[in-house]
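Target protein
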Amino acid sequence: MLNALDRNSLQPVSAQWLRAIGPDGAEKETLAQSVYQRLKDDIVELRMPPGQRYSEQSLAASLGVSRTPLRFALHVLAHEGYLNRLEGHSSWQVKPLDLDYYEDLYDFRLSIELLAIRRLCTREVSAELEPLCAFWRVPVAARVLDGKTVARADEVFHSTLVSLAGNREMLRTFEELTERIRIIRRLDFITPDRIAAAFDEHAEIIQRLLARDAAGAERLLSAHIQASRAAIREITLHRLALASARSDGAQQR
């Protein structure tokens, strides 16, 4: 069911850099993309803790690749805001998490989505919302419980609302926000109670949109995002503490 919701527009815009690897092409492109995805997953899952430094030599050795595809991947991740390149060294730092910065992004995101909802409720959108209904408005027994799948569907849900508002610049800005907050947003879907809440809250928002109840939809969306933000902050702090403890333990050994 999630395949029906998939949107190419949610792919990172800078991932196109990985396609510009040279005329001898496909194999290097695939390898660079693979390295990029592996590193990004490690950063997002906090297996590479924020603030930690890595040399290109150690990364290349641990991934079993040469410096060329590694450097392409590292530059893309730096462009996306996940890494800092250290001056004068062939080394990189996982960008430290600034939770206040993410709070600002969430405020911006909420403003865009509330504007989108006001626009949606001025017209009939039931047909356009059918793919979202097919995923979120299902019996409890039919709900998807895999956190990564739900996180992906959550991104598509919110991006769809903004897309249906019909403003391309607003959608472009929203997709950039989505990419920037993904590193912490996924943490909202690692516990069964948060996954259950996501289904309940998305279904209620859809119901208000179908009824063209702008005030009700705005109220529910605001509460949904605020609850998500609070849960993410708590989980992030806990995960950061665990990641730091693992890193300290590894260094002591």
About this structure: Residues 83 and 95 are 5 Å apart (CA to CA). The chain has nine helices and three strands. The longest helix spans residues 214-252.
